[in-house]
Specification:
Layout lengths: L3 H16 L3 E2 L5 E3 H8 L9 E4 L3 E5 L4 H10 L5 E10 L11 E10 L4 H15 L6 E6 H9 L5 H9 L4 H11 L7 H7 L15 H16 L5 H11 L2 E3 H14 L4 H16 L8 E3 L13 E6 L10 E5 L1 H7 L7 E6 L1 H10 L1
Parallel strand pairs: 1-5, 7-9
Antiparallel strand pairs: 2-4, 3-4, 5-6, 6-12, 7-10, 8-9, 10-11, 11-12
Helix pairs in contact: 1-14, 4-12, 6-7, 11-12
């Protein structure tokens, strides 16, 4: 249930962000399901409320605001802008029926900025200040560093693309990395297809033609010929994912890793500039946590800086505030034209709940 106190807090937060220079927008509650499923993956279908419209096709109750706001911004030309919004979002909670499936979000989006580090710091500092007094723990990460490490692997483009697809599914990513490194065998169907024994690969289902199957076998054989990933590359990815600690210590670890993983050098330098920008805004970066694994189970459109503010004594609660950078999303919604973009959301209902418990 959304309380009156939560709605009052939402209105106050939106007004706060508007005073910081953001334009107030109100995206519709019903969104194009096809677009959202394409962006988030079919996994979202299990967590979304989807309905059918005889004219517009499948529609989805708004699972968040970022996609419709980005779409609106790109259609308007993509000039630098800040936006804020407040309203209901809807997500099924089958795994935890006690968690609300309808709740309020208030957000701030900064698009088209010229200094990514400074923009990241601006958004984080706004959320940090808005939640002051709640005793929240801040943790940050950077999906861009892991993406850069994957792009730098000495292997085929197809393998790098497969690993990128699973960045936000840690268990699948680890399993695929082990297969590509030759540490574990691939699925039996793969071995059967490599041997040309199509019947042994499984029953014929779906709409694939004989030509499709032949193409798949050819692709598998080409992949097999590439040989396993280099052990030092795999070890480098594992070491990167283990980086965690206060920002200065994490940066030191990442600088050391960049000697063996030169592909991450630029992303690490970006993290350094962000840390400087955060410090300039009064954030104590010496106490700010950084975890290389953080954000890998969030929305799949994040591709750089990610952060969350959580209640230390309430592990049952989701983050009170969370956000990150999503440059690639703007390209997908802007016909290939990408712009820098970063944003975050707050949950006013959780804020009022924590205040009532204090």
């Amino acid at each position: 249930m959304i309380t009156a106190a939560a709605r009052t807090r939402a209105a106050a937060l939106r007004a706060r962000f508007a005073a910081a220079g953001a334009q107030v927008v109100e995206p519709p509650i019903l969104q194009d399901a096809g677009l959202l499923l394409d962006l988030y993956g079919e996994d979202m279908r299990a967590r979304a409320y989807v309905t059918s419209d005889a004219v517009r096709g499948e529609r989805m109750l708004r699972p968040d605001f970022t996609v419709p706001v980005v779409q609106m911004h790109m259609e308007a030309g993509g000039s630098p802008a800040r936006y804020t919004y407040a309203g209901e979002v809807f997500r099924r909670q089958d795994a935890d029926p006690d968690r609300a499936s309808e709740y309020l979000q208030v957000g701030f989006e900064l698009m088209g900025g010229r200094d990514p580090g400074a923009d990241d710091a601006e958004v984080f500092a706004l959320m940090f200040a808005a939640t002051e007094g709640l005793g929240l723990r801040a943790v940050t990460g950077d999906i861009g560093i892991l993406l850069a490490a994957v792009d730098g692997l000495r292997t085929t483009a197809a393998r790098r693309a497969a690993l990128r697809r699973h960045i936000w599914r840690p268990a699948r990513f680890r399993a695929l990395l082990d297969v590509l490194a030759g540490r574990v065998p691939g699925p039996p169907a793969r071995a059967a297809l490599l041997a040309g024994d199509v019947p042994a690969a499984g029953p014929e289902i779906g709409l694939r033609s004989a030509g499709d199957v032949a193409d798949r076998i050819a692709a598998l054989r080409e992949d097999e010929a590439a040989g396993p990933l280099a052990e030092d590359d795999v070890a480098g990815i594992a070491a990167l994912l283990d980086v965690a600690g206060a920002m200065p210590a994490a940066l030191s670890q990442l600088r050391d890793l960049a000697r063996d993983l030169p592909a991450i050098q630029s992303a690490v330098e970006g993290l350094e500039r962000r840390a400087e920008a955060l410090a300039a805004r009064g954030i104590d970066v010496t106490a700010l946590a950084f975890e290389a694994r953080y954000g890998r189970t969030s929305m799949e459109y994040y591709d750089g800086f990610v952060f969350g503010l959580t209640a230390p004594g309430r592990p049952d609660l989701p983050p009170v505030a969370s956000g990150g950078r999503y440059d690639a999303l703007t390209a997908r919604l802007g016909g290939g034209t990408a712009i820098p973009a970063v944003g975050a959301v707050l949950r006013p209902g959780l804020m009022t709940e924590l205040e009532a418990e204090a």
